[in-house]
Write a structure and sequence with these properties.
Blueprint (H helix, E strand, L loop, with lengths): L4 H25 L2 H57 L5 H83 L3 H13 L5 E5 L2 E2 L8 H9 L6 E2 L6 E4 L6
Helix pairs in contact: 1-3, 2-3
């Protein structure tokens, strides 16, 4: 393949742009905020699960407390009615009064036991509420960190994307000035050779594979016509000759 020396040199400009686009793509993928957000979201999910469990426990103890208080109230009402009957003593035999006194005493003990249960439940509910408050604060704190990391990530991505857009337009302009057959070969080699399709021959060394050409290879390059598209014998990339090639 033949191409004007100026067209070949433009491949170096094109390669520089493609290298930069590759660097930007890598930078976009490897922003530290990506890993930070993933880790924070894991923490957030864990804290949310703990919060849901604490809220469920608080809700369960609230219902348990309501039921226990209702039990206390029922016993209290029953005891109040029995006490009224006992105080009046109307139409009651001594045996009935004795039985009623026993029942009032029994209800008083039952009420006391139930009130102890209520107190125990209230303590558990208070602990659950404190746990909910604590975990709510943790969730909010981690969520704030997530939001901050997402904002930093989005800002960084916007800057990278803007540079990608500018570089892509520059590439389109440079690529449009390269002959179609030369561009096709370059793109094919770039895809095959890890993103580098053309390399400068500098001081007898291929900047693509970093290997120095031996004397035979140098003589072949020296003998090639100025418009001949030469390839590195080692990496097979297009070898672009410049005044600094050392020929």
């Amino acid at each position: 393949m033949n191409a004007a020396p100026a067209d070949q040199i433009r491949l170096l400009d094109l390669q520089a742009l493609d290298t930069r686009l590759g660097q930007l793509a890598h930078k976009r993928r490897s922003l530290p905020e990506h890993a930070e957000i993933t880790a924070l979201e894991g923490d957030l999910a864990q804290h949310r699960d703990l919060l849901v469990a604490a809220q469920t426990e608080e809700s369960d103890t609230a219902r348990e407390q309501t039921k226990a208080e209702q039990d206390v109230d029922q016993v209290r009402q029953r005891a109040a009615r029995d006490q009224q009957r006992l105080d009046s003593g109307a139409g009651m035999s001594p045996k009935d009064l004795e039985n009623l006194q026993h029942e009032v005493a029994s209800l008083a003990k039952r009420q006391g036991d139930l009130e102890e249960v209520v107190l125990e439940i209230m303590e558990r509910r208070e602990a659950a509420q404190e746990r909910v408050t604590e975990l709510t604060g943790r969730v909010e704190a981690v969520q704030a960190k997530v939001d901050a990391a997402v904002a930093r990530r989005d800002e960084a991505l916007a800057a990278i994307d803007a540079e990608i857009a500018t570089t892509t337009k520059e590439r389109e302009i440079v690529a449009g000035s390269v002959p179609a057959d030369l561009l096709k070969l370059y793109d094919k080699l770039r895809e095959k050779e890890g993103g580098v399709g053309a390399a400068r021959l500098y001081q007898r060394r291929c900047e693509g594979c970093r290997l120095e050409l031996n004397i035979t290879e140098l003589n072949e390059v020296r003998a090639a016509a100025a418009d001949a598209v030469v390839r590195c014998e080692n990496c097979r990339r297009i070898l672009v000759r410049t005044p600094e090639s050392g020929l």
